[in-house]
Design brief:
Radius of gyration: 19 Å
Largest sheet: 4 strands, mixed
Strand content: 5-15%
Distance between the termini: 7 Å
Oligomer: single chain
Number of helices: 11
Strand order of the largest sheet: 1-5-7-8
Keywords: Antiviral defense, Endonuclease, Hydrolase, Magnesium, Metal-binding, Nuclease
Structural class: alpha/beta
Helix content: 55-70%
Length: 268
């Protein structure tokens, strides 16, 4: 057993922010020199320009075009790109390769090949999911009882309706998408995506599943927000993510540390 802290905190520097390219924006993302990403419309007008050092990840709609230089710059700086459609469904990922000095990726490969993996991981995952759900429920004024565990979405939506007048599906979905994208970007840098395409795809699905635990807290942020329904969902979500940045970092580090501890405890 190895209690060495994981590399996750080192990967989660607070510098940089998510860049959200809205569904209505049909732009080309170019590299301006070596310092800035420029979002240019098809008629040549500059919509937005941002220094690379200020970008942590990018969420884009399928109509956005990236030049090769822009993609290369994002890869070198570890900037992950996620493409989502108008319904906030993820369609594609661009994750730069990463290395991990603690070789957690190697241990995870051993774990995934173990016949006991589904049972052990399933129990661990459910325990952490229920822990997060209990904290979210309390923030939303609910008891973490059997009814919540059976149908969490119904219980949480009822709580949101009582406070805000409606559940707020679009607002929560928009925030969850940002949280998931950021978690997977952090997780890919921590875990690494080298190896076969099959292995990389397996790891991405695993990170997405883990990210769902962190994304549960979007319900708490929405519930406690002041009149969130007065703002467009995506713009509110981006502002809420920034306002609660410490929460997302803490939850991400907490979960990645627990996951690495679980892997090392069972497969070292």
């Amino acid at each position: 057993m190895n209690d060495t802290p994981p590399t996750a905190p080192d990967a989660l520097d607070a510098f940089g922010r998510p860049l959200l390219i809205l569904p209505s924006d049909e732009v080309v993302v170019e590299l301006d020199g070596t310092e800035r990403l420029v979002l240019r419309t098809h008629d040549g007008n500059v919509r937005h320009a941002v220094p690379l050092r200020h970008v942590r990840s990018i969420t884009a709609n399928p109509h956005v075009t990236f030049t090769g230089a822009a993609l290369d710059a994002c890869a070198r700086r570890g900037i992950a790109i996620t493409f989502v459609d108008g319904r906030q469904k993820r369609r594609a990922f661009f994750f730069p390769l990463a290395t991990n000095p603690l070789q957690i990726a190697t241990l995870l490969s051993f774990a995934l090949d173990d016949p006991d993996w589904p049972e052990r991981y399933g129990a661990w995952y459910e325990n952490h999911r229920l822990g997060a759900l209990s904290r979210v429920a309390l923030a939303c004024g609910l008891l973490p009882d059997a009814a919540l565990r059976r149908a969490p979405d119904i219980a949480l939506e009822a709580s949101h309706r009582r406070k805000h007048g409606q559940p707020g599906h679009e607002w929560i979905a928009a925030l969850r998408e940002i949280v998931l994208t950021e978690f997977m970007a952090d997780g890919s840098r921590w875990l690494g995506t080298q190896g076969s395409a099959w292995r990389a795809e397996t790891w991405m699905h695993l990170l997405e599943e883990l990210g769902e635990i962190v994304a549960l807290h979007a319900h708490a942020v929405f519930h406690l927000a002041h009149k969130p329904l007065q703002h467009p969902p995506q713009r509110w979500a981006l502002a809420a993510y920034h306002a609660e940045r410490t929460r997302w970092q803490n939850e991400t580090v907490r979960l990645l540390y627990a996951f690495e501890h679980f892997i090392r405890e069972n497969w070292t």
